[in-house]
Amino acid sequence: PAAKAYRQAAPEAVQQGIENYVSWTGMPSTAVNSGLQGKFENAALAGLTFFVNGLTFGFVDLMEGEDRPEPEDFGQTLASAGMGEGPYLMVPFLGSHTARSLSGRAVDMIINPLGTFDAEAVETAQMATPVVSAVSFRAAFFDTINDVKYNSLDPYARTRSAYNQQRADLLRDNLPEQGDDLDEFETFFSE
After folding, report:
1. What is the mean pLDDT of residues 29-44?
2. What is the sign, positive or negative, of the torsion defined by CA atoms of 139, 69, 73, 165?
3. Residue 49: is its pLDDT beyond 80?
4. How many helices (H) and strands (E) does the chain have?
5. CA angle 148, 150, 156 (to 5 degrees)
6. Are 134 and 105 a contacting pair, CB within 8 Å?
7. 78, 68, 33: which is closest to 48 by C-alpha?
8. CA angle 79-42-36, nearest 5°?
9. What is the pTM of this model?
C-alpha cells in the first residue's frame, strides 16, 4: 500500500530525487568495498560521486552523464574472498537474501561512514534510508513484483530464481575463475 500511494502521490521528479538519494547513500559502502576488492578506480569514482552529489545531499545527480561506479557491497567482498553463498532467505521487510548477502548488508550498515557524524539530522536520515529505499524499490518495480506475486504458479520459487540470477550477475567479476569441467572430462579420457 505504501508503494502504491507513493507512486500515485509523488511526482516523477520527487521519485527520481529519492532514487538519487538512496543511490548516493550507498556510495560510501561502494567505495569501501571496491577498495577491499582491489577495484581502486571504482572506489575513487564512488568517492568522487559521493562528495560531488553531497552538495545536494544526493537528491540531484550532479554527475549525470559521467561514468557511474558499479555498486559493490560487503556480500560481494565476502564472495571475492571465497566465502560460500549459504541458503536463500526471504527476510521480512528486507526481502530476498542469501546468508552471505545478508551478513554483508549488516556489515555495510555498521561500516557506513555516514554513521560517524553526530548530527541528529544525519542519524534521522540514516535510520529512514532503509524504509525509503524499500518503498522506492517497491514502487519502481511495482508492476513486475505484482506480476510475480499474482501470476506465478510458485511466486517464492520465481522470486528466488530472479534474486539468484541478479546476484550472480553482480558477482560475475568477484568470484574466482573456475576451470571448464568439460576440459577435465576430455583430459581424463585422453590419458
Report:
1. 93
2. positive
3. yes
4. 10, 2
5. 50
6. no
7. 68
8. 40
9. 0.76
